[in-house]
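Page 37, continued from 36.
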């Protein structure tokens, strides 16, 4: 339990470093091609996913044989997820945090759109933002990984939510600064790099609040909670088209703020209840 933070840190360092290297080598050339470069970008991502899937086949994990009662109680995924949330009050609160946290992912395409529309930033800046976002993931992992091992994942969840809440507010503020906005907007993507770190920290917290037999079900349920706001992404896009960026970004900021408030009700499995 007290090593998962450092393991997450090392995984993020490897992943972020690889992404920065590939982006530096390939993205400038592909983005210079305009729309014709996107098949290369998506194709490269697909190949990397395929390689990752192949490597995953070689991983080892201890076999766990479910009890006869567990085997008989298997039910459809959504029913099992609902029952898990219904029966475990602390995990239900975590599911609310995860769903509200997941709303931040809805803003991913709108950050670059805001920068290009409000600050007239050119298309090739996407390359710099990808590099900076991954640099943010690696940098924040250095801090929160050891912190999670020492103080627990609950404290890290609160810290990440506060930092992530500042990203949409910073983006709106910089969009109003025609001189300094283009220079400082990369800071927004540095904060966006917190998102994959937050997902892994929430997963690690989940592993602590249940036993090995229930961990797959709990993680799957948490994944569904993350996905709930993603389904509403077209609605957020409609809000942006109808009213502009301000209200969309403000709604997501409030959602992350609510996640921060709910996180104070979570139990700390290492040091007692609240």
């Amino acid at each position: 339990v007290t090593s998962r933070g450092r393991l997450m840190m090392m995984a993020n360092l490897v992943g972020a470093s690889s992404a920065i290297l590939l982006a530096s080598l390939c993205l400038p050339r592909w983005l210079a091609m305009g729309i014709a470069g996107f098949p290369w970008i998506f194709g490269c991502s697909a190949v990397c996913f395929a390689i990752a899937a192949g490597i995953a086949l070689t991983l080892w994990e201890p076999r766990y044989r479910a009890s006869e009662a567990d085997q008989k109680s298997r039910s459809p995924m959504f029913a099992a997820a609902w029952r898990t949330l219904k029966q475990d009050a602390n995990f239900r609160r975590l599911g609310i945090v995860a769903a509200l946290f997941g709303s931040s992912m809805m803003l991913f395409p709108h950050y670059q759109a805001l920068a290009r529309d409000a600050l007239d930033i050119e298309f090739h800046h996407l390359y710099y933002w990808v590099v900076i976002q991954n640099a943010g993931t690696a940098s924040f992992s250095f801090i929160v990984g050891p912190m999670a091992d020492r103080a627990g994942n609950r404290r890290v969840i609160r810290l990440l939510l506060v930092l992530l809440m500042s990203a949409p507010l910073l983006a709106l503020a910089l969009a109003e600064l025609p001189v300094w906005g283009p220079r400082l907007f990369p800071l927004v993507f540095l904060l966006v790099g917190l998102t994959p770190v937050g997902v892994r920290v929430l997963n690690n917290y989940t592993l602590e609040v249940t036993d090995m037999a229930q961990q797959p079900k709990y993680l799957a349920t948490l994944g569904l909670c993350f996905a709930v706001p993603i389904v509403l992404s077209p609605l957020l896009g409609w809000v942006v088209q109808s009213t502009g960026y301000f209200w969309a970004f403000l709604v997501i900021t409030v959602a992350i703020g609510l996640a921060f408030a709910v996180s104070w009700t979570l139990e700390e499995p290492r040091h007692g209840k609240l």
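Residues 90 and 266 are 6 Å apart (CA to CA). Flag for discussion at group meeting. The radius of gyration is 20 Å.
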